[in-house]
Amino acid sequence: MTGNTSETAALDGAALPQQDIRRVRSNPDFWYPVAWSRELRRGRAIGVRYAGQPIVVVRPEAGAIFALDDVCPHRQLPLSKGVVCGDFIRCAYHGLKYSRRGQCFSPGMKLENEPPRLRTWACREKDGLIFVFMGDLEKSDSIALPDIPRVRDPHYRTRRFGKVVQCHYSFMHENLMDMNHQILHSRLVGSMKPRFLGMDRGEDFVEARYTFARTSGRQPLSEALIYGQRRKDGRDFAYRDVMTIRTQYPYQTLQIETEGIDEPVMELWIAYVPQDREELTNRVFGLLSIRRLKIPFLLDLAWPLLIAFTERVFTEDREIVELEQQAWREQDGDRNQEVFPVIMALRQLLIQNGMPSRKDIG
Amino acid sequence: MTGNTSETAALDGAALPQQDIRRVRSNPDFWYPVAWSRELRRGRAIGVRYAGQPIVVVRPEAGAIFALDDVCPHRQLPLSKGVVCGDFIRCAYHGLKYSRRGQCFSPGMKLENEPPRLRTWACREKDGLIFVFMGDLEKSDSIALPDIPRVRDPHYRTRRFGKVVQCHYSFMHENLMDMNHQILHSRLVGSMKPRFLGMDRGEDFVEARYTFARTSGRQPLSEALIYGQRRKDGRDFAYRDVMTIRTQYPYQTLQIETEGIDEPVMELWIAYVPQDREELTNRVFGLLSIRRLKIPFLLDLAWPLLIAFTERVFTEDREIVELEQQAWREQDGDRNQEVFPVIMALRQLLIQNGMPSRKDIG
Amino acid sequence: MTGNTSETAALDGAALPQQDIRRVRSNPDFWYPVAWSRELRRGRAIGVRYAGQPIVVVRPEAGAIFALDDVCPHRQLPLSKGVVCGDFIRCAYHGLKYSRRGQCFSPGMKLENEPPRLRTWACREKDGLIFVFMGDLEKSDSIALPDIPRVRDPHYRTRRFGKVVQCHYSFMHENLMDMNHQILHSRLVGSMKPRFLGMDRGEDFVEARYTFARTSGRQPLSEALIYGQRRKDGRDFAYRDVMTIRTQYPYQTLQIETEGIDEPVMELWIAYVPQDREELTNRVFGLLSIRRLKIPFLLDLAWPLLIAFTERVFTEDREIVELEQQAWREQDGDRNQEVFPVIMALRQLLIQNGMPSRKDIG
């Protein structure tokens, strides 16, 4: 390498900080989804996690949801095992009640010490998702909730999906961003040859664009449904579509645009929320919006097929990233020999926007 | 706090020794139950544990039971996997035989070294329980076996119950002693308002007395059976009964007395025997004795109902104490903010009568 | 002990090196079986292990099998999850292809770094077994594959068996070599009294010879089939047969010869292949060859019975050695008080031919 510009230096693996990317913690100064709205009925509470911190989200019979530490200070039991009474959450064991401000009201117990007070967490609901803000509370007002407009757009139908995946969130970002892994899904989608069109990057994002040509195999019906029609001109899927994948820290999106249609035919918004303290598991919250077809209800008819198709793709990806995490454990650290500039840029983004591992800061 | 008497100082959390109560080991200088008599038939052996020590209890075809280390010195196999031959226990693998005094008799093997000798443990049987004494053998004669007279009293019928519970024994003592947790069982027993009547304490015991009023819900049939009748005077369960809970180290009892009956309507004797070396699991041995009713056989008829009722209460308690233990693990130690003087006294009792944790003594 | 010859000194436990035999690693300079030939069809790959090292064995559509590290250097995924294409194995994730020499061929990816190269392992096939050589590659040509001639001898029928057993391989060697454990199988074979006839030992082997007398119980039918007939002369199994057990490092054999028949009635060849890095689990590859009887097809008719019989013996042994391993874990090391000279010699053999534990060499 002769011309050592700052850009190539930044992309050069050797210049990266000596951090194991699988130990980088997510930055808490963002709104993270922790549950689907439909999981939490009126008068109920739910126990969720962000990076090892247990949180109880309460939906009282009336009024907005609220979030507290999911630990009763008296005996450390999860409050989410308790019962919602009016605007309070009551511990299952001795019945200590806590308000939305975390104040304790103790029925019939003569407390000798000052009643304990629970930590509260900023908590909002939008587009069918429940979000919490676990970072610096003062920032919570200035940091916007993610915007997912297709969810509310009648021209699209949206599928909500997600599972707990046993790996660090960085594996998820890399999996979606690196379209050279199409071969993994060849049994489902046939042989697809990706062509990398270019990338953009900034302080808080990396974006990659691809197009595809089908090299063998028939286009599956489910895919045809996304593109609105089966192509009859023999140029089936041949570099007519553009797929844009973007990690806008800490979220990720994927958009497919095709010739002759103004709006994207598909848009995916996805977040990977660390569950345990080491952040080696994550819960996925995905919103997959597909543009409705010209023939009314056709998309609805085909919906079960689309669900099955996307579920299988997701399952294949999940198996792979969990194998990657398993290899990381066996080899006691990251041994990846990454060569694709997009992924090298993505790794740098995740490290620079994330938090150093507890190990590195002592 | 202005008047700082020695009593309040002793109750004050800050004055307690800086020990994590969940690490305090049980004192071995007592008789601990390790099995029910009915579990061990003639000519059989059973493998049990006390605080990580494997013990084999043998019931020969003739004569009294005996207890040895459950490890064959030759190849370290559990002798309890072997066979009882006459007054000997024979190892399953190579057939080495051990007497009740732990002496080895080796069939057909030319031993070059001195035959190994097994440790023996004092072992007695009473009231359907098999007890061992794991402490200083010289003390075993002066320390009495626990007395549970109701078991032999024809006016009572006794239920034996117990399971392995995944928690430190101290959680069990606290659970039973703190009647403010009635709310946990409200689905089973309705709303009960406990009134704390007072406590007594000594070097080796803590005793608390309560009475109750039903605030809502109907008295369950199973409960009525214990009290002999459904109350018709509208004062249903209103402060007419006294419940006395006593930890007489290391055992625990619960007694209910009611107006107009000389003897208790119910008496529970219960022991929590640490299983693993860290003493974070315990096996429960409970004897629940209920006074027979005036109508003969009525209690026997209702027995299955009573079993189901007590089993469900026990299950609710078990779930709670296991959640407490789990929180202790996650938080890496005891974070309880205990405020109830009875429980604070009980914790002190368990610490002072128990053994310091291995961690603390190095 | 008065006469302290060098021989007795060598057998004396105190004179043994202070190594825990359960930490001694197997010597990699031998051919170890890692799979049955029938497990690996044409055009397929299989993932196996030797002492923690993951290996992929590939059987291309044409040509001989080959073995590589089962880790794609790009993202550390097991290549055995991939697909065989011609003479290549292709990674499931991004499609990187590797030749039998471990060279990487990358389809459509612009690699900036030198393509990574995988380690290859010597790999051969014989008698229905796939062997690898994990030691010094230069030695692989001079070290012979094990010879198991009965497998190819039409006078014998051979059963292949094996499972993963959760113990160090040394427990397996000791189990088979010490015939004083016949008592373990007394429910299956009746009471057998072993008589030790003597032993031989050399730098790389220990051999023990026994004969047996039945002391009670009837000879099982399955056993009679091995010996060709039920003995009618009342001397049933009384010291007429000789059983020879030999550990020829690292393999083991067992042979039974009986009066009046020139060739052995039974021959067992068995290998124990460490699976994990600590070598505390092993996969068993056993070949049990039984001489055909005079009446044609009688052995074939009885075959299912023989399989069931040997399977039950193997299961009893497996339970025992896994209990031994469990005791080793609980006691945090080897506490065996071995007294039988054959086993003491065998332990010495395994230590001297094996590799020091990683712990001991730092």
UniProtKB/TrEMBL annotation, chains A, B, C:
<feature type="domain" description="Rieske">
    <location>
        <begin position="31"/>
        <end position="132"/>
    </location>
</feature>
<dbReference type="GO" id="GO:0051537">
    <property type="term" value="F:2 iron, 2 sulfur cluster binding"/>
</dbReference>
<keyword id="KW-0503">Monooxygenase</keyword>
<keyword id="KW-0479">Metal-binding</keyword>
<keyword id="KW-0560">Oxidoreductase</keyword>
<dbReference type="Pfam" id="PF00355">
    <property type="entry name" value="Rieske"/>
</dbReference>
<dbReference type="GO" id="GO:0004497">
    <property type="term" value="F:monooxygenase activity"/>
</dbReference>
<dbReference type="GO" id="GO:0046872">
    <property type="term" value="F:metal ion binding"/>
</dbReference>
<dbReference type="InterPro" id="IPR050584">
    <property type="entry name" value="Cholesterol_7-desaturase"/>
</dbReference>
<protein>
    <submittedName>
        <fullName>Toluene-4-sulfonate monooxygenase system iron-sulfur subunit TsaM1</fullName>
        <ecNumber>1.14.14.-</ecNumber>
    </submittedName>
</protein>
<dbReference type="InterPro" id="IPR036922">
    <property type="entry name" value="Rieske_2Fe-2S_sf"/>
</dbReference>
<dbReference type="InterPro" id="IPR017941">
    <property type="entry name" value="Rieske_2Fe-2S"/>
</dbReference>
<keyword id="KW-0411">Iron-sulfur</keyword>
<keyword id="KW-0001">2Fe-2S</keyword>
<dbReference type="Pfam" id="PF19112">
    <property type="entry name" value="VanA_C"/>
</dbReference>
<dbReference type="InterPro" id="IPR044043">
    <property type="entry name" value="VanA_C_cat"/>
</dbReference>
<keyword id="KW-0614">Plasmid</keyword>
<keyword id="KW-0408">Iron</keyword>
